[in-house]
Amino acid sequence: MTDTVTVRKPQTKAKPERPRLWKVILLNDDFTPRDFVVAVLKAVFRMTEEEALGVMLTAHRKGACVVAVFTKEVADEKARIATEAGARAGYPLTFTTERED
Ligand code: TYC
Q1: pLDDT tens-digit readout, 20-31
Q2: Which of 47, 67, 74, 92 is the most exposed place for a label (fewest CB within 10 A)?
């Protein structure tokens, strides 16, 4: 008679990972006009005038400001479009992205 021992594979729990989010960060510079920064924030990030003014002023005073969080693809694309809008107008306006912890 043969003893049969059944060894089960440890069950891998299906744990749905939440997609990591990426911050779009606006960097201050000494050349881009304030109105231009506000216009880009409104156009690319669909902010109201008040929201855009607040973000622009925070970046102006502190050196940088988080604009919004998105999935990596959306954050990269919006940062690229917003930075290019500045470059097309001859300004060094820069948006970067950074992974949220
Ligand atoms: N510092 C700029 C000025 O004085 C305005 C500005 C604000 C530029 C925020 C970039 O992210 C920025 N004209």
Answers
A1: 999 999 999 999
A2: 92
